[in-house]
Amino acid sequence: MKPCIKPWALLGSLATLTLGLAATGLAQAQAVVGQPAPAFKITDASGKAVSLADFKGKHVVLEWVNPGCPFVQKHYDSGNMPATQKSARGKDVVWLSVSSTARDAGDYKAPAELAGWLQKKGASNNATLMDEEGKLGRSYGARTTPHMYVIDPQGKLIYAGAIDSKPSTDIADLKTATNYVNQALGEALAGKPVSKAQTQAYGCSIKYASGA
């Protein structure tokens, strides 16, 4: 005989699940494409304060990064992410890498260590933002590494999602992938609307600090 699940018990389970999602940051409000991007002021890996307002009048890319993630390794080991950064910066676009990995996570890298890893991989970003408390990541709804956002010169979010169209760790897939960040920047800089303004981000789940 199958056990009877009482309706109120099911509701209780759903409530517990919802609370659990909220606790891990999966139920938080996200930044909305087409709306102003959440403002921030945060310290970078060199100890300097960086704010979104510093770059008013320029396109800005935010890239969530974690060197321990195989998806991140794919895009750095292949040179794809550094090449995308270099291309963007060549067009006077600001590129900010963000680490929202909690300090107590096993793959957390301290500021100098993370900056060193990025330098070794040939990164061409403007700054590496240290978001150990997770406030910046949660304000944008960042869920994975990598997770990409593009902000226009007026401070409006014009792209959010994946780096490209191939959600895998296979470097060979880069040959046939559409680079969504390159595409969004190319269209925006040409004065055109972004044709694919939102995609499903893929990668490793961000290890947020509990209670952040």
Would you kindly provide a brief summary of this structure?
By secondary structure, the protein is an alpha/beta fold.
Walk me through the structure:
Mean pLDDT is 89; it is low at 1-28. It is built from 6 helices and 9 strands, in the order αβββααβαβαβββαβ. The radius of gyration is 18 Å and the shape is globular. The strands form 3 sheets. It has a 5-stranded mixed beta sheet. The protein has a two-stranded antiparallel sheet with strand order 1-2. With 212 residues, it is an alpha/beta fold. The chain has one domain (29-205): Glutaredoxin (3-Layer(aba) Sandwich), CATH 3.40.30. It has helices spanning 7-24, 70-77, 80-89, 111-120, 135-140, 180-189; strands at residues 41-43, 49-51, 60-64, 94-99, 127-130, 144-145, 148-151, 157-161, 204-205.
CATH arch. level architecture: 3-Layer(aba) Sandwich
Count of alpha/pi helices:
6
- Main sheet overview: 5 strands, mixed
CATH superfamily: Glutaredoxin
Fraction of residues in helix: 25-40%
Which CATH class? Alpha Beta
pLDDT averaged over residues: 89
User: Order of strands across the biggest sheet?
Assistant: 5-4-3-7-8
Q: What would the CATH topology be? A: Glutaredoxin
What structural class do the secondary elements suggest? alpha/beta
* Total number of domains: 1
Rg, nearest Å? 18 Å
Low-confidence stretches: 1-28
Proportion of residues in extended strands: 15-25%
Total count of strands: 9
Please report the distance between the alpha carbons of the first and last residues. Answer: 45 Å
